[in-house]
Amino acid sequence: MPILITAEELKSLIESPETVRVLDVRWRLGGPEGYPEYRAGHIPTAVYVDLETELARHGEPHEGRHPLPDAADLQAAARRWGLNDGETVVVYDDLKNLSAARAWWLLTNAGVADVRLLDGSLRAWKEAGYDVAAGEAEGEPGTVTLAYSAEISLSIEEAAAFPETGVLLDARAPERFRGDEEPIDPVAGHIPGARNAPATANFDSSGRFLSAEQLRAQFEAIGVSEDRPVAVYCGSGVSAAADAVALTIAGFDPALYAGSWSAWSNSPGRPVATGD
């Protein structure tokens, strides 16, 4: 099943008799809030998804800033968005899919067979000359059935041990990985043994994902290979999903540590590495 969809392909789907559900997942660390921007202008038929409350739940500090939602809560949210079983779902944001990837990863792991990311995000839609709609999209509630088929996130213990047998990637910016600065979490640095693979490096100048060949070469250059498992984390499990998308496009099968650095750094006694 393809992961990416172009603006032209999405417009054709929206205008065709086949049902497609479009989800607007605009969110940025530190704001501004996505909902007012959604109301000001979104892809026609798109429903707004609140990353903080629908793609995550409130948890304790040791669970990280964006703990995974319970499957029942995710299903209730997805039904509000109008999702039904068997439909194509397209997610987008205005941030090179760095936030929309969280929806792709969650829905894929909850049993939605066809979830795609709008390559180039909202920017690609606008650059194609297509109109946006204001206000709220109207639609009927859906009846989709969602369930996590297994533990979809590594535990903190599994993340700690992962570099012994596999490659653990940190999707944050290099300065946060090195521990030069930490604007959010209580400790600066990274999980010992992790390697830096900034999620922002997966895109070209237009905000589209690099080709599968380019992504594969990029990951292989930092040690990812077919004969070792690979996993990824970030600050709170959001941009890590964008690395997971890129790894999947490149032909790998990544695991994800959703608690990420925000959980690790709030768990007393966990070792911290700094530098490259």
From TrEMBL:
CDD domains: TST_Repeat_1, TST_Repeat_2. SMART domains: RHOD. Coiled coil: none annotated. Keywords: Repeat, Transferase. It comes from Subtercola lobariae. The keyword Iron does not apply. GO terms for molecular function: thiosulfate-cyanide sulfurtransferase activity. InterPro entries: Rhodanese-like_dom, Rhodanese-like_dom_sf, TST/MPST-like. Residues 16-134, 162-273 form the Rhodanese domain. This is Sulfurtransferase.
